[in-house]
Design a protein that fits this description.
two-stranded antiparallel ribbon, two-stranded antiparallel sheet, about 40% helix, single chain
Length: about 210
Amino acid sequence: MKYIEKGPQPKSLAAYNKKVSANTKWKSFNRSVKNDTYDSILHEQGYICCYCGIKISRRKCHIEHYRPKSKYTHLTFDYSNLISSCQGEDEQRPTKPVHCGHKKGGWFDEELMISPLDPNCSSYFRYTGAGEILPTEDPEHQEAAETTIKMLALDINKLKKMRRKAVEGVIQATQGLSEKEVKQLAEAYLERDGSESYAPFWATIDYVMRQFY
Protein backbone atom coordinates (compact mmCIF):
# COMPACT_ATOMS: atom_id res chain seq x y z
CA MET A 1 0.00 0.00 0.00
CA LYS A 2 1.42 3.35 -1.06
CA TYR A 3 0.65 6.63 0.67
CA ILE A 4 -1.72 8.86 -1.29
CA GLU A 5 -1.20 12.55 -0.75
CA LYS A 6 -4.52 14.20 -1.49
CA GLY A 7 -4.47 17.52 -3.29
CA PRO A 8 -7.23 20.10 -3.75
CA GLN A 9 -10.47 18.90 -5.27
CA PRO A 10 -11.15 19.70 -8.94
CA LYS A 11 -12.84 23.07 -9.42
CA SER A 12 -15.83 21.40 -11.04
CA LEU A 13 -16.30 19.16 -7.98
CA ALA A 14 -16.01 22.12 -5.62
CA ALA A 15 -18.76 23.89 -7.57
CA TYR A 16 -20.86 20.73 -7.64
CA ASN A 17 -20.56 20.28 -3.88
CA LYS A 18 -22.06 23.72 -3.36
CA LYS A 19 -25.19 22.60 -5.17
CA VAL A 20 -25.76 19.05 -3.90
CA SER A 21 -27.98 18.33 -0.94
CA ALA A 22 -27.48 15.80 1.82
CA ASN A 23 -29.89 13.50 -0.04
CA THR A 24 -28.07 13.56 -3.40
CA LYS A 25 -27.24 10.00 -4.45
CA TRP A 26 -23.95 8.86 -5.97
CA LYS A 27 -25.78 7.45 -8.99
CA SER A 28 -26.88 10.95 -9.93
CA PHE A 29 -23.30 12.28 -9.94
CA ASN A 30 -22.86 14.62 -12.92
CA ARG A 31 -20.91 12.70 -15.57
CA SER A 32 -18.59 15.55 -16.53
CA VAL A 33 -17.72 16.34 -12.92
CA LYS A 34 -17.23 12.64 -12.22
CA ASN A 35 -14.77 12.40 -15.10
CA ASP A 36 -12.82 15.37 -13.74
CA THR A 37 -12.75 13.67 -10.36
CA TYR A 38 -11.50 10.42 -11.88
CA ASP A 39 -8.71 12.23 -13.73
CA SER A 40 -7.61 14.04 -10.60
CA ILE A 41 -7.60 10.94 -8.40
CA LEU A 42 -5.79 8.78 -10.95
CA HIS A 43 -3.06 11.36 -11.38
CA GLU A 44 -2.73 11.73 -7.62
CA GLN A 45 -2.17 8.00 -7.23
CA GLY A 46 0.17 7.69 -10.19
CA TYR A 47 -2.25 5.26 -11.87
CA ILE A 48 -1.88 2.45 -9.36
CA CYS A 49 -4.59 0.93 -7.16
CA CYS A 50 -4.99 2.57 -3.77
CA TYR A 51 -4.85 -0.82 -2.03
CA CYS A 52 -2.97 -3.53 -3.95
CA GLY A 53 -0.88 -1.30 -6.21
CA ILE A 54 -1.59 -2.87 -9.61
CA LYS A 55 -1.68 -0.59 -12.64
CA ILE A 56 -5.06 1.02 -13.24
CA SER A 57 -6.65 3.22 -15.86
CA ARG A 58 -9.98 4.98 -16.25
CA ARG A 59 -11.52 1.81 -17.66
CA LYS A 60 -9.96 -0.49 -15.08
CA CYS A 61 -10.84 1.16 -11.81
CA HIS A 62 -13.67 2.59 -9.77
CA ILE A 63 -13.92 5.49 -7.37
CA GLU A 64 -13.61 4.07 -3.88
CA HIS A 65 -15.11 5.72 -0.82
CA TYR A 66 -12.53 5.11 1.88
CA ARG A 67 -15.25 5.60 4.46
CA PRO A 68 -18.26 3.84 2.87
CA LYS A 69 -20.92 6.18 1.55
CA SER A 70 -23.56 3.79 2.90
CA LYS A 71 -22.54 4.73 6.43
CA TYR A 72 -20.92 8.13 5.94
CA THR A 73 -23.45 9.74 3.63
CA HIS A 74 -22.09 13.23 4.35
CA LEU A 75 -18.79 12.15 2.75
CA THR A 76 -20.33 10.87 -0.49
CA PHE A 77 -18.87 13.68 -2.60
CA ASP A 78 -16.10 14.73 -0.22
CA TYR A 79 -12.88 14.65 -2.23
CA SER A 80 -10.77 13.79 0.82
CA ASN A 81 -12.72 10.52 1.07
CA LEU A 82 -12.39 9.57 -2.62
CA ILE A 83 -9.63 7.30 -3.87
CA SER A 84 -9.38 4.86 -6.77
CA SER A 85 -9.35 1.08 -6.51
CA CYS A 86 -8.80 -1.53 -9.20
CA GLN A 87 -11.82 -3.51 -10.30
CA GLY A 88 -10.53 -6.34 -8.16
CA GLU A 89 -11.54 -9.30 -10.25
CA ASP A 90 -9.85 -11.88 -12.42
CA GLU A 91 -10.16 -11.10 -16.13
CA GLN A 92 -10.60 -14.81 -16.93
CA ARG A 93 -13.23 -15.38 -14.25
CA PRO A 94 -15.21 -12.16 -13.72
CA THR A 95 -15.98 -11.42 -10.08
CA LYS A 96 -13.57 -14.15 -8.89
CA PRO A 97 -11.42 -13.66 -6.92
CA VAL A 98 -12.64 -10.32 -5.66
CA HIS A 99 -10.18 -8.08 -3.86
CA CYS A 100 -9.50 -4.46 -2.88
CA GLY A 101 -12.43 -2.01 -2.99
CA HIS A 102 -15.05 -4.47 -4.21
CA LYS A 103 -14.00 -6.94 -1.53
CA LYS A 104 -14.08 -4.28 1.17
CA GLY A 105 -17.60 -3.25 0.24
CA GLY A 106 -19.31 -1.48 3.11
CA TRP A 107 -16.87 -2.71 5.75
CA PHE A 108 -14.91 -0.13 7.69
CA ASP A 109 -13.28 0.00 11.10
CA GLU A 110 -11.43 3.14 12.16
CA GLU A 111 -9.04 1.13 14.32
CA LEU A 112 -8.50 -1.91 12.12
CA MET A 113 -8.32 -0.47 8.60
CA ILE A 114 -4.91 0.68 7.39
CA SER A 115 -5.51 3.78 5.31
CA PRO A 116 -3.57 4.66 2.15
CA LEU A 117 -4.14 8.24 3.30
CA ASP A 118 -1.82 7.58 6.27
CA PRO A 119 1.72 8.78 5.44
CA ASN A 120 3.13 5.72 7.25
CA CYS A 121 0.84 3.11 5.68
CA SER A 122 3.56 1.36 3.66
CA SER A 123 5.55 0.64 6.83
CA TYR A 124 2.76 -1.53 8.23
CA PHE A 125 3.33 -4.31 5.70
CA ARG A 126 6.19 -6.62 4.73
CA TYR A 127 6.75 -8.62 1.56
CA THR A 128 8.58 -11.83 0.71
CA GLY A 129 10.38 -12.99 -2.40
CA ALA A 130 7.46 -15.33 -3.04
CA GLY A 131 5.13 -12.34 -3.36
CA GLU A 132 3.47 -12.73 0.02
CA ILE A 133 2.21 -9.71 1.93
CA LEU A 134 2.67 -9.90 5.69
CA PRO A 135 1.70 -7.60 8.56
CA THR A 136 4.28 -5.48 10.32
CA GLU A 137 6.01 -6.94 13.37
CA ASP A 138 5.16 -3.75 15.24
CA PRO A 139 2.55 -4.84 17.82
CA GLU A 140 0.86 -1.43 17.70
CA HIS A 141 -0.24 -1.86 14.08
CA GLN A 142 -0.02 -5.61 13.58
CA GLU A 143 -3.69 -6.43 14.15
CA ALA A 144 -4.83 -3.62 11.85
CA ALA A 145 -2.44 -4.78 9.13
CA GLU A 146 -3.63 -8.39 9.46
CA THR A 147 -7.25 -7.31 9.30
CA THR A 148 -6.67 -5.05 6.31
CA ILE A 149 -4.94 -7.84 4.40
CA LYS A 150 -7.87 -10.15 5.15
CA MET A 151 -10.69 -7.69 4.44
CA LEU A 152 -9.15 -6.54 1.14
CA ALA A 153 -8.02 -10.07 0.18
CA LEU A 154 -4.51 -8.80 -0.52
CA ASP A 155 -3.03 -12.26 0.00
CA ILE A 156 -4.84 -14.11 -2.81
CA ASN A 157 -2.74 -16.14 -5.26
CA LYS A 158 -3.42 -13.76 -8.13
CA LEU A 159 -1.75 -10.87 -6.31
CA LYS A 160 1.03 -13.06 -4.87
CA LYS A 161 2.04 -14.13 -8.38
CA MET A 162 2.03 -10.55 -9.65
CA ARG A 163 4.08 -9.32 -6.70
CA ARG A 164 6.53 -12.19 -7.10
CA LYS A 165 7.10 -11.22 -10.71
CA ALA A 166 7.74 -7.61 -9.66
CA VAL A 167 10.20 -8.77 -6.97
CA GLU A 168 12.05 -11.01 -9.42
CA GLY A 169 12.43 -8.06 -11.77
CA VAL A 170 13.90 -5.93 -8.99
CA ILE A 171 16.36 -8.63 -7.91
CA GLN A 172 17.49 -9.13 -11.48
CA ALA A 173 17.99 -5.39 -11.94
CA THR A 174 20.18 -5.13 -8.84
CA GLN A 175 22.54 -7.97 -9.77
CA GLY A 176 26.18 -6.84 -9.59
CA LEU A 177 25.36 -3.36 -8.32
CA SER A 178 27.00 -1.74 -5.32
CA GLU A 179 24.92 -0.58 -2.36
CA LYS A 180 25.18 3.00 -3.60
CA GLU A 181 24.11 2.01 -7.11
CA VAL A 182 21.14 0.02 -5.76
CA LYS A 183 20.01 3.06 -3.78
CA GLN A 184 20.28 5.25 -6.88
CA LEU A 185 18.34 2.68 -8.89
CA ALA A 186 15.66 2.53 -6.21
CA GLU A 187 15.28 6.29 -6.15
CA ALA A 188 14.89 6.39 -9.92
CA TYR A 189 12.61 3.35 -10.07
CA LEU A 190 10.23 4.76 -7.50
CA GLU A 191 9.74 8.10 -9.24
CA ARG A 192 6.88 8.72 -11.65
CA ASP A 193 7.68 7.88 -15.25
CA GLY A 194 7.10 10.01 -18.34
CA SER A 195 3.36 9.32 -18.21
CA GLU A 196 3.18 10.39 -14.54
CA SER A 197 2.69 6.78 -13.46
CA TYR A 198 4.28 4.93 -10.57
CA ALA A 199 5.59 1.41 -11.03
CA PRO A 200 2.96 -1.24 -10.25
CA PHE A 201 3.41 -2.70 -6.76
CA TRP A 202 5.38 0.38 -5.75
CA ALA A 203 5.25 -0.47 -2.03
CA THR A 204 6.50 -4.01 -2.63
CA ILE A 205 9.40 -2.77 -4.74
CA ASP A 206 10.24 -0.10 -2.19
CA TYR A 207 10.32 -2.67 0.61
CA VAL A 208 12.45 -5.16 -1.31
CA MET A 209 14.97 -2.59 -2.50
CA ARG A 210 15.45 -1.29 1.02
CA GLN A 211 16.75 -4.73 1.98
CA PHE A 212 19.76 -4.12 -0.25
CA TYR A 213 21.00 -0.89 1.33
